[in-house]
Amino acid sequence: MARMTMIEAIRSAMDIAMGRDDDVVVFGEDVGYFGGVFRCTQGLQAKYGKTRCFDTPISESGIVGAAIGMAAYGLRPCVEIQFADYMYPAYDQLTQEAARIRYRSNGDFTCPIVVRMPTGGGIFGGQTHSQSPEALFTHVCGLKVVVPSNPYDAKGLLIAAIEDPDPVIFLEPKRLYNGPFDGHHERPVTAWSKHDLGEVPDGYYAIPIGKADVRRPGSAATVVAYGTMVHVALAAVADTGIDAEVIDLRSLMPLDLDAIVTSVSKTGRCVVVHEATLTSGFGAEIAALVQEFCFYHLEAPVMRVAGWDTPYPHAQEWDYFPGPARVGRALIEVLEA
Fold first, then answer.
1. In terms of pTM, does the model score above 0.90?
2. Domains of the chain, CATH where assigned
3. Across residues 57-62, what is the average pLDDT?
4. What is the CA radius of gyration of the chain?
5. Is 184 a catalytic site residue?
């Protein structure tokens, strides 16, 4: 076991996948010699050569389009979109081509690609480097969507994604890239905590896509979160002292509905937390499912805590994010309802 940041865990996953399968190729803007803007691919070109880890022009549609063609002919591309905000030129390729190949070909072709994207805020990147577009992908049949919250999950889920026969959108929360995060932006973190799960096996392991993780058992309420917001939820529970169960979805599509239903049926209360804007965010889907499958167990309305319904506010970044105080108020409200 080694102590790894999420960046190191992601790099280890690609390294292991490339070592196990010569068909795995890694490419994108600046991912070769430079090692990626966040250094997730650092050293891979030196180890595997320029034909298996290489740079591309600044063309997101070209990156994804080339990956789709490679995948149809037997390769397993793992490509990087430098920021999730840059993926819009490639959205047509992802939704109209990658997501449809299995169905349009009646199973004759599959599209085993992984599209890695740093997502969310926390680096003062402004409106075009901080978006959380996960709901745009979960709405598309044929795409799988994964959002890890810690280094251990990031490595195991990325290996599983690379091995998956269908296209996987792999969203990497930037705030979690470089080390521990305790959910309070104003408090520096100087040591790994039990919530960061920084111990990561050096070798191969895979975490099945579509399985949530109960990060904290509880009986008073259920908090459903993913990515960075898992840490915010854990901080809110610790700050309030409420015995809430915290579920880390890990995979948005396919969604582990059984884990959600089991928890909410036990607690009778549910708070959903995500960083993206509230309206039409993925939390609305979770709230609808909880109402549909847990209606007779609910003791209070399902509550959502999310980003503002505004363009991303650069100067007010930390106010925009759901923080422990906002999540804590929601927990208190559902308990008092």
1. yes
2. 2-176 (3.40.50.970), 210-336 (3.40.50.920)
3. 97
4. 19
5. no
